[in-house]
Structures are given as C-alpha cells and as structure tokens.
Amino acid sequence: MANEIPELDDLLKGVNGPDTGTKLSDADITVTQAVGQSSTDGCWDRFLACIESTKPQDRDGRLACKIDRDLADTLDDCDIRGRCRSDLVNAIVRAFIGAYLPRLADYRREKKSLFDGFREDEPQDNKKTQ
Fold first, then answer.
1. How many angstroms separate the Cα of 19 from the Cα of each of 12, 14, 80?
2. Which branch of life, at top level (predicted)?
C-alpha cells in the first residue's frame, strides 16, 4: 500500500497566510492604495489644521484626561510643530470628532439634569413664596 498521506506543509499552504486563492490585479491594488491614501491624507490634513488652529499657550480651558501608556510614549516620541502631548491629543480628538460628528450624534446621551425644564419665573414646590 502506497503512502498517500500528504505532507504537512502541503496541507498548511494558504492557511493563515497571504494567499487567499484569488489574485488582485495591479490596477486593483493601485485603486485600493489610492483610496486608502486619500482617506488617510484627509485625516492627516484635518489633524494638521487642528494643530495649527490652537495656540500652544491657550490651556486655560483644559481638563485632565488619562491615556494609555503606549499612546503617551508614542506621542512623546513625535515632534510635530513643537507641540506637547496634550496639544497632539486635542488635535487628534478634534480631527476625529470633526470627521465623525454626525455618527457621534447617534450616541449622544440624554441629559437627565433636574435643571431640564426649570424656569425661574414658575413657582416651584420647594420654593418659598413671599
């Protein structure tokens, strides 16, 4: 009886590898790269516009926010227009929000403050009348 068991390498060819069984033409690859490039260029341009629109010393309205250490280290390794990490984070977030504000609106929380619907001129149950 002949040994008909295929070699392991033959069985694993294409598994978790780059070969998907279909080949993209050079034109398809070029179009895919161009679309991806224009998308990332737009994001980068928006980021640069945000970084340019804020003054480095304009920090009065800032709040503290924690980011992951690997992100902080990555931003610290960058020297973009001499801006600090906080400036870069703000520009990145502003660019993202500017690009996706309509989508973010779907996730907006409903305010549940007691001040909703409050008007000074209406008598309140707990308000003392004079």
1. 11, 5, 38
2. Bacteria
Give the Cα separation of 8 and 52 in Å (integer).
57
Cα within 13 Å of Cα(112), Cβ side: 2
Residue 93 CA, distance from chain mean position: 7
Provide the residue ranges of all domains of the chain, joining segments of one domain with +: 30-55+64-107
Tell me if the pTM is above 0.70: no
- The string of pLDDT tens digits covering residues 44-80 is 898 889 888 867 656 777 888 899 999 999 999 999 9
Where do we find the tokens 């040994």? 3
Q: What is the DSSP string of the chain?
A: ----PPPHHHHHTTTTSS--S----HHHHHHHHHHHHHHHHHHHHHHHHHHHHS-TT--TT-------HHHHHHHHT--STT--HHHHHHHHHHHHHHHHHHHHHTTPPPP--TTTT--TTS--TTSPP-
